[in-house]
Amino acid sequence: MNRRVRRKLARRRQEKVDFAELGECLTLDERGIVDWTRLPDDTVLQLFSCLNYRDRASLSSTCRTWRTLGVSPSLWQVLDLRPHKCDSDAAVALAPRCRNLQKLRFRGAESADAIIQLQAKSLCEISGDYCRKITDATLSVIAARHESLESLQLGPDFCERISSDAIKAIAICCPQLRRLRLSGIREVDGDAINALARHCRNLMDIGLIDCLNVDELALGNVLSLRFLSVAGTTNMKWSLALQNWSKLPNLMGLDVSRTDIIPNAVLRLFSSSPCLKILCALYCPALEQDANFVSNNNHKGKLLLSFFTDIFKEVASLFADTTNKERNVFMEWRNLKTKDRKMDDVMNWLEWILSHSLLRIAESNPQGLDNFWLSQGAYLLLSLMRSAQEEVQERAATGLATFVVIDDENASIHSGRAEAVMRDGGIGLLLNLARSWREGLQTEAAKAIANLSVNANVAKAVAEEGGISILANLARSMNRLVAEEAAGGLWNLSVGEEHKAAIAEAGGVKALVDLIFKWSVTGGEGVLERAAGALANLAADDKCSMEVATVGGVHALVKLAQNCKSEGVQEQAARALANLAAHGDSNSNNAAVGQEAGALEALVQLTRSPHDGVRQEAAGALWNLSFDDRNREAIAAAGGVEALVALAHSCANASPGLQERAAGALWGLSVSEANSIAIGREGGVAPLIALARSDAEDVHETAAGALWNLAFNPGNAFRIVEEGGVPALVHLCSSSVSKMARFMAALALSYMFDGRMDEVALVGTSSDSTSKSVNLDGARRMALKNIEAFILAFSDPQAFSAAAASSAPAPLTQVTESARIHEAGHLRCSGAEIGRFVTMLRNSSSILKACAAFALLQFTIPGGRHAQHHVRLLQNTGASRILRAAAAAASAPIEAKIFARIVLRNLEHHHIESSN
């Protein structure tokens, strides 16, 4: 049956139009497509009401019909300017739509100055955030232009430039005022409060929060007052308050949270105030530390909301039919079929003051509140997030995002609190709020999801409940604040390896790259840091890194590294480029980053940053990039040698992470002999020796690797001796907990004393042409002794004897497994280096012979990343003959002979594999 739906709607010239029935409008055209332009106007308006304000304002650019509907008063009764930049020009453009505006929310002084241009004379409610710079003059003009104002709220941040003069202007200009809530005013004097009492006869709700001084005596003159909050207000004279507030005939609710009120004052207020029903006293130390007061639960029908009372039970007692499900009291009140206006006023006030106080307490993060947060605080915030009041919802979500954080600097959260939120169904609730069309709520919900997702269990729950797709969609928002928090959520979720692929599948990679392109011009540093940080995490995954490159991520990140001045953005952009370049064996991103115009120059420049985090990530990126031959030379051409040597000099007292990457980048560059010589000439030997003395295992490895490469050149080898490097390498070789550091230190020492340095030693290398005093013989003896000890540490005499006595493969396998350093399989040697080890097999020193055979064993073990490459190099040098001679030499130590036999077997293994 097709019901006929008739609607009437006012249009321009006030004509009345009947609309066709809904069924007739939604007919299919000849292509089988619904013609949406024929929808009834009231249906279109309903759809338009789901748009954000920016999109509503853009309707005028579509068609004449929608332009007409776009200015309908029903779409412009409420306006939230907080997500947008609202200057005078924007306000003038909005003015024709705002003649019937009822409620306005704004952010900052610029918007406050502009809203008087809206000409919204019927405005009833104004709420402002970030009001530190709003002046008396601005607030007085706002009051003068809006005589119908019933509610004015400024906060929760401090209104530092507002004085009692502005409050007097509000009182005179806005006689219909019912609610006034101001935060952080230095002084609210008696004249201002008395003006409110005289002119605003309907004023029922005053909040003077976090103020320095408030005239307690004058507050007793506001006889219409039903609700009063002085939360966080200092210098209160409670004796005066008791004398005067107890006489207020209508005062039902009083909020003294975060004040120094004492137990006696609370008891006297309860006994002397006939109408006072509710006292909220959250985080009042004088009350909480009084054991007798805490244990006294008999307040003769008065409600005390505090950390030591059951807040849900107290609130439930307001209702005659108290339910057993006290924790759901707020939800059950909202679902009541029969509404009581006075009770609704009480509950709305309670929601507001609780959300405000819980947020303030979460921000200050005082100690000793774990029990409160876990037992009722978390659930209370979740209950408030279901409020019908937008401000309450947002503050509760912000409180939820805040109370779990225990260390901002290290992004550390309280696992118990985070999992309490998850246990009480908070994840699903937050995701539902994130789907809201209200951008303020989207922002705070996304922020809470982001913070909670630091916890791995919560992150898993977010992913399982569809949170990744929601955050990816929010990251596409035109609202910078929404996009910023969504990017932060993806950043935290992308820490988990199990979530990276899901983020890519949800389009999160492209959304993050698009954010960088979108906001890098306008300077949204917060969104850029979060987007780059998320991309850095995603780039650590091979498949995701390819997607980052495919959607333009390399170009976007390089532009950030080049142009952005924010330390956080630079650090994350450099980290992302480092991770993109870390997959040299599996994709082409390493080369792609190096070939991006200006990439290497930008990273070299970032190594000169005053911030350790930026320098660390830039050096890490250059280290990874240096694994590509073309990049290595391009980095040097871009001044990388000089910059990295300077970085190594400057980071003696820096973090191990920075030290590791500085040495690692020099290690990577020094693979090229030309770069190695340049590093030596630039003064890179001394800082690397200093880093080799570090207490950190990772720094041992990179410094030893760099010195190993440098020592290949005889001039550098002598520099190492001159700069006191032999004792440092000996210490590494004998004492480092890292097998790799010990191995590379031994190789560096073997290079230095295989005879090639002797000719250089006759001339010296010091810059002043005067060689430093060096005892080469003593240094050689020390080096060889420790190389021998290193080799012997990997030899099992019983296994060696068995291998020497038998030609069977099993004993050789046993020796291989006991001698193998697994990480050495990642090392890649050049033909010259392999040739040097082969030559060392014929050295007169039996210790160096054993060391060379040991090194070749490590480099040719089947399964090593570069084993086949090393085998080909050995074959090209004709090493088999020399290896057989070493294995059969009667005078050679057993270690050299057995290791040589194993290398020969490795060569045969690779020959058989290649033949197959």
Polypeptide structure, described:
It contains 52 helices and 14 strands. The strands form three sheets. Strands 1-2-3-4-5-7-9-10-11-12 form a ten-stranded parallel sheet, with helices on both faces. It comes from Nicotiana tabacum (Common tobacco). This is Protein ARABIDILLO 1.
Number of helical regions = 52
- Strand-pairing-aware structural class: mainly alpha
The portion of residues assigned to helices is 55-70%
- Low-confidence segments: 1-28, 766-771
Largest sheet: 10 strands, parallel
Shape: elongated
- Extended strand count: 14
Hey, roughly how much beta strand do the residues contain?
Answer: 5-15%
Protein name: Protein ARABIDILLO 1
List the helices and strands and how they pair.
Layout lengths: L21 H4 L15 H8 L4 H5 L6 H7 L7 E3 L7 H7 L8 E5 H7 L10 E5 L6 H10 L5 E4 L9 H10 L5 E5 L3 E2 L1 H10 L5 E5 L3 E2 L1 H4 L7 E3 L8 H8 L7 E3 L7 H10 L5 E3 L4 H4 L2 H5 L7 E3 L5 H6 L12 H6 L6 H24 L5 H15 L5 H14 L1 E3 L4 E2 L1 H9 L2 H9 L4 H14 L3 H9 L2 H8 L5 H14 L3 H9 L2 H12 L5 H15 L2 H9 L2 H11 L3 H14 L8 H7 L3 H8 L5 H14 L3 H9 L2 H11 L5 H14 L3 H10 L2 H8 L4 H15 L2 H9 L2 H11 L3 H14 L5 H6 L12 H17 L4 H9 L3 H11 L11 H10 L5 H15 L6 H10 L2 H10 L5 H22 L1
Parallel strand pairs: 1-2, 2-3, 3-4, 4-5, 5-7, 6-8, 7-9, 9-10, 10-11, 11-12
Antiparallel strand pairs: 13-14
Helix pairs in contact: 5-6, 7-8, 8-9, 11-12, 17-19, 18-19, 18-20, 19-22, 21-22, 22-25, 24-25, 25-27, 25-28, 27-28, 27-30, 28-31, 30-31, 30-33, 31-34, 33-34, 34-37, 36-37, 36-39, 37-40, 39-40, 39-42, 40-43, 42-43, 42-45, 43-45, 43-49, 45-49, 46-47, 47-52, 48-49, 49-52, 51-52
Protein name: Protein ARABIDILLO 1
